[in-house]
Amino acid sequence: xxxxxxxxxxxxxxxxxxxxxxxxxxxxxxxxxxxxxxxxxxxxxxxxxxxxxxxxxxxxxxxxxxxxxxxxxxxxxxxxxxxxxxxxxxxxxxxxxx
Length: 98
Prior knowledge:
Layout: E1 2-14, E2 17-30, H1 33-48, E3 61-65, E4 71-76, H2 77-90
Antiparallel strand pairs: 1-2, 1-3, 3-4
């Protein structure tokens, strides 16, 4: 089992580019990076697409880091909302990262 770190971050644009402010930190054990990424992705989609949660989301992105603190995946909240809005506009069902 490998340990993966999950970070909820706030993104700030400034003169020097985009900086991140960590808000919350979690740890996740998994046998593979792809399994850890999939688990985080599914949880994030459920959280963001909940009927009551969107008013409470205070982070802009979720990062998945490996044991060496190398970024394995990054999920932007805006990407999830955009995919859902595009699906609604086209009359299709939101396909959850298919």
